[in-house]
Fold this protein.
Amino acid sequence: MSSPDRSTAGEGLQSLETTLATVLGAIAGATEAESAWILDALGRVAAEDAVAATDLPPWDNAAMDGYAIRAVDVAAATESTPVRLEVIGDVAAGAAPGVEVRRGTAVRIATGARIPTGADAVVQVELTTPADASGAALGPRGRDATGPLPAACLVHRAMAAGASIRRRGSDLRAGTTVVRSGTAITPAVVAVAAGAGLEHLLVHRRPVVGVLATGDELRSAGTPLGESGIPDANGPALMALVEDAGGDPRNLGIAKDRLDDVKARVSAGLAGQPDAIIVSGGVSVGPYDHVRTAFEAYGTIDLWRVAIQPGKPFAFGTAPRPGGGPPVLLFGLPGNPVSTFVTFELFVRPALRKLAGLERTGRLVDRAVLLDETPKGEGRRAFVRVVAERDAAGSPVRDDRGRARVRLAGGTGGQGSHVLSALAAAEALAIIPEAVDVHPAGGEVELWWLDRA
Ligand code: AMP
Ligand code: MG
């Protein structure tokens, strides 16, 4: 049944790759860079390499609670013949030592406290016994390091020079790169930036994205549906998707299926200086589909039949940015809610990743076996909504080749492009290639986990 050219764009369909390349090619670069306080930088993308402002640790410090000593003084110590050291002081974390460890002495020290001059090792409290001035034990061995400072301590083991000391700069040296340009600021990056003494990071501005739903039938949440209304799902969905993708969504409301209303809302959206406008619905070529014409009033737009399922009609173009600067991206997504969602993932999310400054615009790809036989549209790449088999601990089950085992979300009836319940249940999109007409039960697929872009 399959003909060789059906794997590409047959019947006037345009391939996904061509479409995505056109979208990404319209983006010259990321949004401007701006300085953000490190916590406000979370979820954004570094616009430059950031370097450590300090050595970390900034000075030698203790890795253990115990005593700062000179290793040479305890070279002969054994369990039964401990070495007695005079305890001449105490250093807490954050305190300047103010005392020097000389021959035959020790300074009690807390984890993280700066090593006093003269000391070259820390012996942990568990290897010592507190003692009085005569050397008689004051309490049990290995007692905790709290309470009054003993006059002396007995050390029961020889220590190597450097033992239990975290050297200055052993984690980071001032001037080394701690955040790489083009990478996302995660909680761990916030940790390393803060630990390296940085207060601000240069990050890209979040892309501003206008979101417009279209359709006479749509009612916003809280509005009675009346005789023929349906709740607007795509408006809130796209707002959430934009936010999730690191953008700054702006609600342009719901347009009636009238050219003047769609135009007025696109115009209002453009006035808000967005980086992109996304319109859902009204993108086909029916009598009520005005999105393409509305976009044409402000910019250039193409409408394609893309070789994907769901989401065949897809409009994309650009409009000049009011006041100058890079053009505003215009996306027209098909109105069926699952089509809107999938086309966002295929075309809008990569665009927002590029605008946000991420080096990697594509998704992480996993492999799975799709256990259900799945028919699909001829010549189109299908993105089917699936759930993973999980073990008792909740981890996805994998076969002996490391492939996740997935099934159609909502069963075979869940794959309609209007079926929101199966979309919400889905954990991943499984990808069935163009050339396959019916995916065989148990066949391999590529997998996009929906929570791991
Ligand atoms: P359209 O692309 O405008 O022809 O819409 C296709 C289908 O998607 C129709 O059944 C619409 O009612 C539905 N639809 C369009 N927009 C939305 C929306 N914002 N929320 C829920 N369903 C929608
Ligand atoms: Mg419509």
In short: Residues 214-215, 257, 281-282, 335 surround magnesium ion (ligand 2) (CB under 6 Å). The two ends are 35 Å apart (CA to CA).
